[in-house]
Design brief:
It contains four helices and five strands, in the order H-E-E-H-E-H-H-E-E.
Length: 167
């Protein structure tokens, strides 16, 4: 067995164990997110604050990238050639950008998922207590160092090599 894959499985199992042990993801009372994203970058946007995000692929390999504060994880994945589909282009109409936040503490730093996001997550394969849609996870300073696992399977909508881009 490959060590990277074992580590990914162990991390996801640890999340499940934490939840089983009573360390539940905290639910806040916010009913909607005021976070916005934009795929339009300011000229000279390199001076924007960035955070470190590690994507853990289904085969256990990892890729750590710098993500500007305010950008969605879906956009960040697309800009860095990480295979996170996003068939609806970030319009909250599918579950193909499903990610698993690997640390419950990081999950608890996120805004609560909206009812619309929860409806889409219900369609995702491999749903966990810390699952989110990548288009709804927005980079912010307190998420620096976050690790996101890509699930082993997704409902793939891509056809003929089409790679959707968030709006």
């Amino acid at each position: 067995a490959r060590p990277e894959l074992q580590e990914t499985c162990q991390a996801i199992a640890a999340i499940t164990t934490e939840v089983s042990a009573g360390i539940q993801p905290q639910r806040k009372s916010i009913l909607f997110s005021t976070a916005t994203t934009s795929s339009h970058h300011d000229e000279g946007g390199d001076d924007k604050e960035k955070i470190s995000v590690t994507f853990v692929n289904k085969d256990g390999t990892e890729k750590t990238i710098s993500v500007p504060v305010g950008m969605s994880m879906l956009e960040a994945a697309h800009e860095n050639d990480i295979e996170l589909e996003g068939a609806c282009e970030g319009s909250l109409a599918c579950s193909t950008c499903h990610v698993i936040v690997m640390d419950v503490k990081d999950y608890n730093k996120l805004e609560d998922p909206t009812d619309e996001e929860n409806d889409m997550l219900d369609l995702a394969f491999g749903l966990t207590e810390t699952s989110r849609l990548g288009c709804q996870v927005i980079a912010k300073p307190e998420l620096d160092g976050v690790r996101l696992a890509l699930p082993a399977a997704t409902r793939n909508f891509a056809v003929d090599g089409f790679v959707p881009k968030p709006h």
